[in-house]
Amino acid sequence: MEGLQRCRYWFNGVSLFFHPLRLVLLILVCFGNVGAAFYNLTTIPFDQGYIPLFGDGNLVRSPDGKGVRLLLDRFTGSGFISSNLYNHGFFSANIKLPSDYTAGICVAFYTSNADVFEKSHDELDIEFLGNTEGKPWRFQTNLYGNGSTNRGREERYRLWFDPTKDFHRYSILWTPEKIIFYVDEVPIREVVRNEEMGADYPSKPMSLYTTIWDASSWATSGGKYKVNYKYAPFVAEFKDLALDGCPADPIQQIPPAEACAEHYTHLATQDYSVISPQRRAAMNRFRQRYMYYSYCYDSLRYPVPPPECVTVPAEKARFKDTGRLKFGGSHKRQSKRKSHKRNRAVPNSDNAADI
């Protein structure tokens, strides 16, 4: 039923008007095999898999216990964490982001083990980076392995919908062989493990984290626009939480491959573990239309691309040597970049056309 309702919403909305990418995505989700498994995910109540992390007063459980609201005000942000650490898994939630003026805000959905492995932590990020009123949210994916924080692997994007108007599902698949980031049922990024990555591929047990916090120093246009608490409280909503992982003790003596072998097989047989030709077509269209930064094409940072990078000639031609789009595609009237910010800074960019 959720899938039919979402399809009906898209068909009736203005967002499809003369937009070929949205039409392709809609056909794949509604009539193809892209979304079937996602509409049948096993979800769990909040208290069954998660505990508050910080800002308890700003964490509000839903009446049915299946969701939670995270608030940011001038006193504190808030967040929650999974009750267990996991050796690989599928982590997913329906999320609705704050609206209006959201500059400087970071809403993060990510896995990490920094509290256990302080100097050699692993991390997989989906970070939503707010914006000034009237401009769309932007977001990035990133990954670190074995404390490789000096080798950020950011990709940054816009969306083909307004994430403040309705819930949309965001997911991270992490297996011993690959990582896939999803928006709804569309894969937006795939990282395939290879020997050259070595310990840069996340491999230690991780917890799932979800937070909202003040990231004024970097989140919006490299820190140009700060959080304005006149618009507080900022509210991010989460529901339909799915967590399919192999619980693990980070200091256990049993090798992860042995302890979680059965679960690895289970993950590999799930629909979301395979990027079908239809899904890959949707992913390519998303990346062509909405990705505006890729570290793989940023030769200023990486004269030699990191080993997991797969060069796509069409992408390389668009991003040239900086990894950033300056013109063309849906990114019109883009501001010039004055300086190269640190790894987690977000390049200037304008409204996404057609939203």
Write the layout of secondary structure elements.
Layout: H1 2-12, H2 20-31, H3 46-49, E1 50-54, E2 59-61, E3 68-72, E4 78-82, E5 85-96, E6 105-112, E7 123-129, E8 138-144, E9 155-157, E10 168-174, E11 178-183, E12 186-192, E13 207-214, E14 234-248, H4 256-259, H5 261-268, H6 277-290, E15 291-298, H7 313-319, E16 322-324
Antiparallel strand pairs: 1-4, 2-3, 3-14, 4-13, 5-10, 5-14, 6-7, 6-13, 7-8, 8-9, 9-15, 10-11, 11-12, 15-16
Family: Belongs to the glycosyl hydrolase 16 family.
Keywords: Apoplast, Cell wall, Cell wall biogenesis/degradation, Disulfide bond, Glycosidase, Hydrolase, Membrane, Secreted, Transferase, Transmembrane, Transmembrane helix
Organism: Malus baccata (Siberian crab apple)
